[in-house]
Design a protein that fits this description.
heterodimer; A: OB fold (Dihydrolipoamide Acetyltransferase, E2P); three-stranded antiparallel β-sheet; 1 helix; about 5% helix; B: alpha/beta; Peroxisomal Thiolase, Chain A, domain 1; nine-stranded mixed β-sheet; 12 strands; about 35% helix
């Protein structure tokens, strides 16, 4: 059992790319502004021509927490787990999970890179692991 | 906002407890009747209501109008973002009174967390299947919940960790700071008969050894979960003076919202520590016509102890990044420069989404609080990110 994203017309391309192992961020075709989560118009130039840009998948941990007490039964068997806000090399931030190291080893400022975790048949979550 | 145009003429509350037999609707009725009785107004004369939006507030104004036999409301409004709306509901009620939209506005909040909606338990609901849970398509929750970021406590843990990182606190510095806040609030609660934690002492050893919930936040850094209700009556200053000798005037109340600053949203823009913009705090004080020094007591929304710490900075009682040293040096107790959460706050009195903080400010300004701040004339009640109010006698 998993908690899976509800997808909208606006957000489906993000999750579809994740399923293919790619991290994409919404990009304004007029001014290049990157927005995450996606928006219906560019907040900088108000352009409506929005597309998707595949990003490097590298970034750093901006802040994090290690969850040791579940607030939802869906995550009870994953305790302890690390949640982080990651700042991508391209600028945008995203909430994510940190895998590939014990939760205790997560630190602010830690370099990380994207990995893709399939949680159900149809859903893959972009997560991050320590960068070598 | 016109200072002193509106006033709080009555307050009411139910008992606060982990589980109360009445449902939220009945608790709301009890609190509203108590507030009207305290104000000396007939509940039938209530013509305005202001509340928190669903799903936070499950008791609608329609339910209350029906249950209380109120003839007609000419004004009713809702404010979003949960406890962040604590100043918003005051602003809406005071604005309605000042604009002549209503004469007697009741603000209420009722919770029955024993019947569901608790974050502290990962209970599987009865009849829930093992099927995947699809996150509701709102407020970008789909970008947070699938990672197990589902509760305010977890979100505030991210803020607290960021604060420690930016301002160079060791884990011990952060523990001592948050612990000072939690233990001080527990001491206030120990002399507050209405507080759920009135008989439960909290010492350093117990605080420090408590289990981590979402690092760096421990059990006692997080608010209670409970049943209870609060209500208060807002009317014109003139009417309030006719009703009682000690009305509490609304000096100012403000809301604030900027991109990626919606509480419980996911913060993907700007420095996440800047939740209550300095401009909003300045607006709150300038409209009230008072300075930081004039605030005698503050009730700062504390779903977690970290929010009390950060709010001391946001509202300008300590410089950015200096709040933790301020707490370690001066504390927030009765003899500190600014007593904070004198009822015990959400950590130790009860969790009423900031409404019990408003009620405590009113008692302080009437001179009837359990932990009375001598001669208190001006009080600030503030949320970490969404709204705040300054009240005065």
């Amino acid at each position: 059992m998993a908690v899976v994203p509800g997808m909208t017309e606006l957000t489906a391309p993000y999750w579809e790319a994740a399923r293919e192992g790619r991290l994409v961020i919404q990009e304004c075709r007029s001014c290049g502004q990157l927005s995450h989560p996606p928006l219906p118009a560019c907040p900088r130039c108000h352009g409506r021509g929005l597309g998707w840009r595949e990003v490097s998948g590298t970034g750093t941990v901006y802040t994090y927490t290690v969850v040791r007490h579940p607030t939802h039964f869906a995550f009870a068997d994953q305790i302890p787990y690390a949640i982080a806000l990651v700042e991508l090399a391209e600028g945008p931030w995203l909430i994510t999970g940190i895998t590939g190291c014990p939760p205790d080893e997560v630190r602010a400022g830690m370099p990380v890179r994207a990995v893709f975790r399939e949680v159900t048949d149809g859903v893959t979550l972009p997560c991050f692991e320590p960068a070598p | 906002m016109i200072a002193r145009a509106a006033a709080i003429a009555g307050i009411g509350q139910t008992a606060y407890a982990k589980a109360l037999p009445p449902a939220a609707w009945e608790l709301a009725v009890e609190a509203v009747l108590a507030a009207c009785a305290d104000a000396g107004v007939d509940v039938a004369d209530v013509d305005g209501m202001c509340r928190f939006t669903a799903p936070f507030e499950t008791v609608s104004e329609a339910m209350l109008v029906r249950a209380l036999g109120i003839r007609e409301l000419s004004f009713f409004a809702q404010a979003p973002h949960g406890g962040e709306a604590l100043g918003a509901v005051v602003a809406h009620a005071a604005a309605a009174v000042s604009a002549g939209l209503a004469n007697v506005v009741v603000v209420y909040r009722a919770l029955s967390q024993s019947r569901g909606g608790r974050f502290g338990r990962a209970d599987r609901g009865a009849g829930e299947s093992a099927a995947d849970i699809v996150v509701p398509e709102q407020d970008n929750l789909s970008f947070a919940w699938p990672y197990g970021l589902m509760s305010p406590g977890q979100l505030f843990a991210l803020w607290a960790r960021r604060y420690a990182t930016v301002h160079g606190l060791t884990d011990e510095d952060l523990t001592r700071t948050l612990g000072t806040i939690a233990i001080t609030q527990r001491q206030y609660a120990n002399s507050n008969p209405a507080a759920m934690m009135r008989d439960r002492k909290l010492d350093w050893e117990t605080y420090q050894n408590a289990r981590m919930i979402s690092e760096p936040l421990r059990l006692f850094d997080l608010c209670l979960e409970n049943d209870g209700a609060c209500a208060f009556v807002v009317t014109s200053a003139e009417r309030a003076r006719a009703l009682r000798d000690d009305p509490v005037y609304v000096l100012s109340a403000t809301q604030t919202l900027s991109p990626y600053r919606e509480p419980m949203g996911i913060y993907t823009g700007g420095e996440m520590l800047e939740l209550f913009p300095p401009a909003a705090a300045d607006r709150l004080f300038s409209q009230a016509g008072v300075s930081r020094k004039d605030i005698d007591v503050a009730e700062l929304y504390d779903a977690t102890s970290y929010m009390t710490l950060r709010s001391l900075e946001s509202y300008g009682f300590a410089a950015d990044g200096a709040g933790w040293r301020y707490v370690l040096d001066h504390g927030t107790g009765p003899d500190s420069p600014l007593p904070v959460n004198t009822h015990g706050g959400h950590l130790s009195e009860a969790y009423l989404h900031g409404m019990n903080g408003i009620l405590e400010a009113v008692r302080q300004l009437r001179g009837t609080a359990c932990n009375q701040v001598a001669g208190a004339e001006v009080a600030l009640v503030g949320a970490p990110a969404g709204s705040a109010t300054i009240l005065a006698r």
